[in-house]
């Protein structure tokens, strides 16, 4: 019996050895990239990650001299040799181009994926940096979390600006009150139609009929545009102050009033300035 268990264990051990990737590592200041075959791509990932790190931290108004993710706190990035092995080892759905494990501070992608390099990497890094910044305790609304992460995908910013301006022009914006209260995770995509009340450009009540897909897309579009607006119009220092107020348990209106005292006292003011920004 013992012999049999031993044999099974031995076989399992050999089996998992053949399955495990043979990781090589590339160390940077704030990241360690693990890869199996293509050092050039791994080097590209590392260089980009260091650039994103600086950009995101400064966009979010992270205190300039507080360095984070150094030495043993470095974030680990795993580059699987191809999409198949990435999907198999991470258990991700087939459309996935990358993922992050926020608890372990790891980001995973696969070799030569441009989507990973340009979108997933900055997006997931922004989630990680934002979590470092605001922690897990406070009530951080989803629109803010996803807005920050999408804003980090710099190559999409112009595209996003065009889309949101068009939605504004065509009077298809969700009200900000709705954006703040909507739990997008409950929205079913498919044939269901959602009815949302909002206001038009000239302040008239208006009703939107949206498919689940359209509602989800609009939610993400408005989330990133609102974050972009706050950062571009009022600067990163006020933005980080605003996020800290929410982290420390302030209600939204109070956090707005404390962070933007000369402009925004509540969500209605926020909506007014946001729409003005979109009309310019
Ligand atoms: Zn995200």
Oligomeric status of the shown chains? single chain
The stretches of 5 or more residues where confidence is low (pLDDT under 50) are none
Rg computed from alpha carbons, rounded to a whole number of angstroms: 22 Å
Bound molecules: zinc ion
Q: What's the average pLDDT?
A: 90
Global morphology = globular
- Written as H for each helix and E for each strand, in order along the chain, the element string is HEEHEHEEHHHHEEHHHH
List the domain count as a whole number: 2
How is the biggest beta sheet arranged?
Answer: 5 strands, mixed
Structural class: alpha/beta
The overall strand count is 7
How many helices? The count is: 11
Strand order of the largest sheet: 1-2-3-5-4
As a percent range, the share of strand residues is: 5-15%
